[in-house]
Amino acid sequence: YAARLIDPEAIIIGGRLPNAVHHALAVEIDRPDFCTETELEEKMPRPRVLGSMLGARAGVIGAAALPIYAALFAEQETG
After folding, report:
1. Over the range 34-58, which residues count as b (16 or more CB within 10 Å of their CB) and which as e?
2. Strands 10-13 and 48-51
C-alpha cells in the first residue's frame, strides 16, 4: 500500500549488504503480483524494484553529502 500512497517510479533495495544480495532481493520482490493488492493497479503503474549499486559504500557516500548539504541549506536552518 505504501507504494501506492506515494507513487514512486522505482523502489531501490539498498544497505550494507553485498550488491548480489540487493539484486537477488529485487528479483524476488519484483514479481507480477507486486503492488496488486487493490484496484489501484489498474490506475497507477507498478513501481520497478531495483537493487542498489552502492553496497557498503552507501554510508560513505551519504556522509560525503553532509558538507554539501550544510553549505547549501545552512542559511535556511539559521534564518
Report:
1. bbeeeeeeeeeeebebbbbebbeee
2. parallel
pLDDT tens digits along 41-57: 667 777 888 888 887 77
Tell me how far the alpha carbon of residue 40 is from its chain's centroid.
21
Element containing residue 60 per DSSP (H, E): helix 58-78
Count CA atoms within 13 Å of residue 26 on its CB side.
Answer: 20
Alpha-carbon separation of residue 27 from 12, 41, 62, 79 (angstroms): 11, 19, 25, 46
Residues with Cβ within 8 Å of residue 9, at least 6 apart in sequence: 47, 48
Exposure of 19 in the CB half-sphere (CA atoms within 13 A) = 6
pLDDT at 18: 83
